[in-house]
Write a structure and sequence with these properties.
The structure is a homodimer. Chain A is built from 6 helices and 4 strands. The first copy, chain A, is α+β, with helices and mostly antiparallel strands. In chain A, strands 1-2 form a two-stranded antiparallel ribbon. Chain A is globular and about 55 Å long. The N terminus of chain A is likely disordered. At the A-B interface, helix 1, helix 2, helix 6, strand 3 and strand 4 of A face helix 1, helix 2, helix 6, strand 3 and strand 4 of B. Strand 4 of chain A pairs antiparallel with strand 3 of chain B.
Chain lengths: 150, 150
Protein backbone atom coordinates (compact mmCIF):
# COMPACT_ATOMS: atom_id res chain seq x y z
CA UNK A 1 0.00 0.00 0.00
CA UNK A 2 1.19 3.45 -0.88
CA UNK A 3 3.10 5.44 1.67
CA UNK A 4 3.44 8.29 -0.82
CA UNK A 5 3.89 11.69 0.76
CA UNK A 6 1.17 14.09 -0.34
CA UNK A 7 2.21 17.24 -2.14
CA UNK A 8 2.80 20.27 0.10
CA UNK A 9 1.43 18.39 3.13
CA UNK A 10 -2.14 18.67 1.84
CA UNK A 11 -4.34 19.01 4.91
CA UNK A 12 -7.70 18.89 3.11
CA UNK A 13 -9.16 15.37 3.04
CA UNK A 14 -11.28 16.26 -0.02
CA UNK A 15 -8.14 17.17 -1.96
CA UNK A 16 -6.31 13.98 -0.93
CA UNK A 17 -9.28 11.90 -2.07
CA UNK A 18 -9.59 13.80 -5.32
CA UNK A 19 -5.88 13.28 -5.97
CA UNK A 20 -6.46 9.51 -5.91
CA UNK A 21 -9.88 9.03 -7.46
CA UNK A 22 -10.91 12.43 -8.84
CA UNK A 23 -10.87 11.53 -12.49
CA UNK A 24 -13.44 10.11 -14.83
CA UNK A 25 -11.79 6.74 -15.48
CA UNK A 26 -10.82 5.94 -11.90
CA UNK A 27 -14.35 6.66 -10.69
CA UNK A 28 -15.88 4.50 -13.44
CA UNK A 29 -13.39 1.68 -12.82
CA UNK A 30 -14.34 1.69 -9.13
CA UNK A 31 -18.05 1.77 -10.06
CA UNK A 32 -17.57 -1.27 -12.32
CA UNK A 33 -15.59 -3.07 -9.60
CA UNK A 34 -18.59 -2.64 -7.28
CA UNK A 35 -20.75 -4.10 -10.05
CA UNK A 36 -18.54 -7.21 -10.15
CA UNK A 37 -16.12 -6.49 -13.00
CA UNK A 38 -12.71 -8.03 -12.29
CA UNK A 39 -10.77 -8.54 -15.50
CA UNK A 40 -8.83 -6.14 -17.68
CA UNK A 41 -10.72 -7.09 -20.82
CA UNK A 42 -14.09 -6.70 -19.10
CA UNK A 43 -13.21 -3.25 -17.75
CA UNK A 44 -11.96 -2.34 -21.21
CA UNK A 45 -15.08 -3.46 -23.06
CA UNK A 46 -17.42 -2.00 -20.46
CA UNK A 47 -15.78 1.42 -20.41
CA UNK A 48 -14.59 1.72 -23.98
CA UNK A 49 -11.34 3.14 -22.66
CA UNK A 50 -7.96 2.88 -24.40
CA UNK A 51 -5.91 -0.04 -23.09
CA UNK A 52 -2.96 2.15 -22.20
CA UNK A 53 -5.11 4.49 -20.11
CA UNK A 54 -6.88 1.59 -18.42
CA UNK A 55 -3.56 -0.08 -17.60
CA UNK A 56 -2.21 3.14 -16.09
CA UNK A 57 -5.34 3.76 -13.99
CA UNK A 58 -5.48 0.16 -12.73
CA UNK A 59 -1.79 0.29 -11.83
CA UNK A 60 -2.35 3.49 -9.89
CA UNK A 61 -5.45 2.16 -8.08
CA UNK A 62 -3.43 -0.91 -7.04
CA UNK A 63 -0.49 1.25 -5.96
CA UNK A 64 -2.82 3.35 -3.79
CA UNK A 65 -4.33 0.29 -2.15
CA UNK A 66 -7.80 0.72 -3.65
CA UNK A 67 -7.67 -2.41 -5.82
CA UNK A 68 -5.66 -5.58 -5.31
CA UNK A 69 -4.49 -8.04 -7.95
CA UNK A 70 -5.26 -11.70 -7.39
CA UNK A 71 -5.27 -14.91 -9.45
CA UNK A 72 -8.46 -15.60 -11.35
CA UNK A 73 -11.20 -17.18 -9.27
CA UNK A 74 -11.83 -19.84 -11.97
CA UNK A 75 -8.28 -21.21 -12.00
CA UNK A 76 -7.39 -19.71 -15.39
CA UNK A 77 -4.26 -17.62 -15.81
CA UNK A 78 -6.09 -14.30 -15.81
CA UNK A 79 -5.39 -11.69 -13.18
CA UNK A 80 -8.33 -10.20 -11.36
CA UNK A 81 -8.68 -6.74 -9.84
CA UNK A 82 -10.74 -6.66 -6.67
CA UNK A 83 -11.60 -3.87 -4.26
CA UNK A 84 -9.56 -3.83 -1.05
CA UNK A 85 -11.21 -2.79 2.23
CA UNK A 86 -9.98 0.75 1.46
CA UNK A 87 -11.59 0.55 -1.97
CA UNK A 88 -14.85 -0.83 -0.57
CA UNK A 89 -15.14 2.28 1.59
CA UNK A 90 -15.57 4.27 -1.64
CA UNK A 91 -19.10 2.85 -1.82
CA UNK A 92 -20.47 6.01 -0.20
CA UNK A 93 -18.72 8.17 -2.83
CA UNK A 94 -20.18 6.15 -5.70
CA UNK A 95 -23.66 6.19 -4.13
CA UNK A 96 -23.45 9.96 -3.58
CA UNK A 97 -22.50 10.51 -7.24
CA UNK A 98 -25.28 8.15 -8.33
CA UNK A 99 -27.97 9.83 -6.24
CA UNK A 100 -26.97 13.31 -7.40
CA UNK A 101 -27.21 12.10 -11.00
CA UNK A 102 -30.58 10.45 -10.38
CA UNK A 103 -32.00 13.60 -8.84
CA UNK A 104 -30.44 16.20 -11.10
CA UNK A 105 -29.60 14.70 -14.47
CA UNK A 106 -32.59 12.53 -15.42
CA UNK A 107 -36.07 13.53 -16.44
CA UNK A 108 -38.90 11.92 -14.46
CA UNK A 109 -39.56 8.51 -15.97
CA UNK A 110 -36.37 8.50 -18.04
CA UNK A 111 -34.74 5.05 -18.26
CA UNK A 112 -31.84 4.63 -15.86
CA UNK A 113 -30.10 1.95 -13.90
CA UNK A 114 -31.14 1.54 -10.28
CA UNK A 115 -29.18 0.57 -7.18
CA UNK A 116 -31.31 -1.83 -5.17
CA UNK A 117 -30.96 -3.49 -1.81
CA UNK A 118 -30.51 -7.20 -2.59
CA UNK A 119 -32.68 -8.36 0.27
CA UNK A 120 -35.70 -6.18 -0.52
CA UNK A 121 -35.37 -5.01 -4.14
CA UNK A 122 -35.93 -1.44 -2.96
CA UNK A 123 -33.86 1.58 -3.92
CA UNK A 124 -31.48 2.90 -1.30
CA UNK A 125 -32.46 5.82 0.89
CA UNK A 126 -31.10 9.23 -0.15
CA UNK A 127 -27.75 9.71 1.56
CA UNK A 128 -27.53 13.07 3.31
CA UNK A 129 -24.88 14.73 5.45
CA UNK A 130 -25.95 14.70 9.10
CA UNK A 131 -24.71 16.22 12.31
CA UNK A 132 -23.48 14.14 15.23
CA UNK A 133 -27.07 14.00 16.52
CA UNK A 134 -28.40 12.59 13.24
CA UNK A 135 -30.12 15.76 11.97
CA UNK A 136 -29.79 16.38 8.23
CA UNK A 137 -27.44 19.32 7.56
CA UNK A 138 -27.53 21.66 4.59
CA UNK A 139 -24.21 22.87 3.25
CA UNK A 140 -24.54 26.24 4.98
CA UNK A 141 -25.02 24.64 8.38
CA UNK A 142 -21.45 23.31 8.24
CA UNK A 143 -18.12 25.08 8.20
CA UNK A 144 -14.56 24.00 7.48
CA UNK A 145 -11.94 24.57 10.16
CA UNK A 146 -8.36 24.52 8.90
CA UNK A 147 -5.67 23.02 11.11
CA UNK A 148 -3.69 25.48 13.19
CA UNK A 149 -0.09 25.91 12.06
CA UNK A 150 2.31 23.70 14.03
CA UNK B 1 -29.30 25.31 -17.68
CA UNK B 2 -27.92 22.68 -19.98
CA UNK B 3 -30.29 20.52 -21.97
CA UNK B 4 -27.33 18.71 -23.48
CA UNK B 5 -28.09 15.22 -24.67
CA UNK B 6 -25.93 12.68 -22.97
CA UNK B 7 -23.68 10.53 -25.11
CA UNK B 8 -25.21 7.21 -26.25
CA UNK B 9 -28.23 7.76 -23.97
CA UNK B 10 -26.14 7.00 -20.89
CA UNK B 11 -28.48 5.25 -18.45
CA UNK B 12 -26.05 5.08 -15.51
CA UNK B 13 -26.50 8.00 -13.11
CA UNK B 14 -22.93 7.57 -11.83
CA UNK B 15 -21.58 8.05 -15.35
CA UNK B 16 -23.72 11.15 -15.99
CA UNK B 17 -22.49 12.69 -12.74
CA UNK B 18 -18.89 11.81 -13.49
CA UNK B 19 -19.23 13.38 -16.94
CA UNK B 20 -20.06 16.71 -15.28
CA UNK B 21 -17.96 16.79 -12.14
CA UNK B 22 -15.60 13.79 -12.37
CA UNK B 23 -12.38 15.71 -12.69
CA UNK B 24 -9.94 17.09 -10.19
CA UNK B 25 -10.51 20.79 -10.85
CA UNK B 26 -14.30 20.71 -11.02
CA UNK B 27 -14.47 18.85 -7.71
CA UNK B 28 -12.07 21.27 -6.03
CA UNK B 29 -13.89 24.32 -7.46
CA UNK B 30 -17.15 22.98 -6.03
CA UNK B 31 -15.43 22.31 -2.69
CA UNK B 32 -14.14 25.89 -2.58
CA UNK B 33 -17.58 27.24 -3.52
CA UNK B 34 -19.00 25.43 -0.46
CA UNK B 35 -16.26 27.09 1.60
CA UNK B 36 -17.40 30.53 0.40
CA UNK B 37 -15.08 31.26 -2.52
CA UNK B 38 -16.89 33.31 -5.19
CA UNK B 39 -14.42 35.20 -7.35
CA UNK B 40 -12.19 34.08 -10.19
CA UNK B 41 -9.05 35.42 -8.58
CA UNK B 42 -9.82 33.73 -5.27
CA UNK B 43 -10.43 30.36 -6.92
CA UNK B 44 -7.24 30.84 -8.87
CA UNK B 45 -5.07 31.66 -5.86
CA UNK B 46 -6.65 28.98 -3.71
CA UNK B 47 -6.24 26.20 -6.24
CA UNK B 48 -3.06 27.29 -8.00
CA UNK B 49 -4.68 26.35 -11.29
CA UNK B 50 -3.87 27.91 -14.66
CA UNK B 51 -6.26 30.74 -15.54
CA UNK B 52 -7.23 29.16 -18.84
CA UNK B 53 -8.16 25.85 -17.18
CA UNK B 54 -10.07 27.59 -14.41
CA UNK B 55 -11.98 29.72 -16.93
CA UNK B 56 -12.94 26.62 -18.93
CA UNK B 57 -14.07 24.68 -15.85
CA UNK B 58 -16.10 27.60 -14.47
CA UNK B 59 -17.74 28.12 -17.86
CA UNK B 60 -18.68 24.45 -18.00
CA UNK B 61 -20.02 24.40 -14.41
CA UNK B 62 -22.18 27.43 -15.26
CA UNK B 63 -23.34 25.82 -18.50
CA UNK B 64 -24.36 22.68 -16.61
CA UNK B 65 -26.31 24.67 -14.04
CA UNK B 66 -24.01 23.87 -11.10
CA UNK B 67 -22.74 27.42 -10.63
CA UNK B 68 -24.45 30.70 -11.54
CA UNK B 69 -22.81 34.03 -12.30
CA UNK B 70 -24.05 37.06 -10.43
CA UNK B 71 -22.87 40.64 -9.78
CA UNK B 72 -20.53 41.08 -6.83
CA UNK B 73 -22.29 41.27 -3.48
CA UNK B 74 -20.24 44.36 -2.52
CA UNK B 75 -21.31 46.49 -5.48
CA UNK B 76 -17.94 46.31 -7.25
CA UNK B 77 -17.74 45.28 -10.89
CA UNK B 78 -16.54 41.74 -10.12
CA UNK B 79 -18.55 38.73 -11.16
CA UNK B 80 -19.26 36.09 -8.56
CA UNK B 81 -19.78 32.38 -9.01
CA UNK B 82 -22.29 30.87 -6.62
CA UNK B 83 -23.70 27.37 -6.28
CA UNK B 84 -27.18 26.89 -7.73
CA UNK B 85 -29.67 24.57 -5.99
CA UNK B 86 -28.35 21.80 -8.30
CA UNK B 87 -24.81 22.62 -7.23
CA UNK B 88 -25.72 22.69 -3.54
CA UNK B 89 -26.96 19.12 -3.85
CA UNK B 90 -23.34 18.12 -4.50
CA UNK B 91 -22.72 18.62 -0.79
CA UNK B 92 -23.19 14.89 -0.18
CA UNK B 93 -20.57 14.09 -2.84
CA UNK B 94 -18.03 16.46 -1.31
CA UNK B 95 -18.72 15.12 2.21
CA UNK B 96 -18.37 11.51 1.00
CA UNK B 97 -15.00 12.31 -0.61
CA UNK B 98 -13.91 14.14 2.56
CA UNK B 99 -14.89 11.33 4.91
CA UNK B 100 -13.17 8.69 2.78
CA UNK B 101 -10.01 10.80 2.82
CA UNK B 102 -10.26 11.34 6.58
CA UNK B 103 -10.63 7.62 7.23
CA UNK B 104 -8.20 6.26 4.66
CA UNK B 105 -5.57 8.85 3.81
CA UNK B 106 -4.54 10.41 7.12
CA UNK B 107 -2.56 8.95 9.97
CA UNK B 108 -4.18 9.17 13.41
CA UNK B 109 -3.45 12.64 14.79
CA UNK B 110 -2.18 14.00 11.48
CA UNK B 111 -3.17 17.65 10.92
CA UNK B 112 -6.18 18.01 8.66
CA UNK B 113 -9.07 20.35 8.08
CA UNK B 114 -12.37 19.43 9.71
CA UNK B 115 -15.96 19.88 8.61
CA UNK B 116 -17.98 21.01 11.62
CA UNK B 117 -21.63 21.64 12.27
CA UNK B 118 -21.86 25.42 12.81
CA UNK B 119 -24.36 25.15 15.62
CA UNK B 120 -22.44 22.62 17.72
CA UNK B 121 -18.81 22.69 16.55
CA UNK B 122 -18.96 18.89 16.23
CA UNK B 123 -17.77 16.87 13.24
CA UNK B 124 -20.46 15.47 10.98
CA UNK B 125 -21.61 11.89 11.38
CA UNK B 126 -20.10 9.34 8.95
CA UNK B 127 -22.34 9.22 5.89
CA UNK B 128 -23.24 5.66 4.96
CA UNK B 129 -25.45 4.14 2.28
CA UNK B 130 -28.66 2.84 3.83
CA UNK B 131 -31.62 0.80 2.69
CA UNK B 132 -35.14 2.17 2.55
CA UNK B 133 -35.61 1.08 6.18
CA UNK B 134 -32.55 3.00 7.35
CA UNK B 135 -30.23 0.03 7.89
CA UNK B 136 -26.60 0.62 6.86
CA UNK B 137 -25.78 -1.35 3.68
CA UNK B 138 -22.40 -2.66 2.62
CA UNK B 139 -21.56 -2.61 -1.06
CA UNK B 140 -22.33 -6.31 -1.47
CA UNK B 141 -25.81 -5.92 -0.06
CA UNK B 142 -26.78 -3.80 -3.04
CA UNK B 143 -27.07 -4.63 -6.72
CA UNK B 144 -27.45 -2.57 -9.89
CA UNK B 145 -30.42 -3.24 -12.13
CA UNK B 146 -30.04 -1.98 -15.68
CA UNK B 147 -33.08 -0.59 -17.45
CA UNK B 148 -34.90 -3.00 -19.73
CA UNK B 149 -34.51 -2.21 -23.44
CA UNK B 150 -37.41 -0.15 -24.80
Amino acid sequence: MSQRKHAVAETCPVARSVDLVGDRWSLLIVRDAFDGTRRFGDFQRGLGVARSILAERLRRLVEEGILAVQPASDGTSYQEYVLTPRGEQLFAVVVALRQWGEQQLFQPGEARSQLLERATGQELAPMQPRGADGQVLGAWQAVVRKPTAP
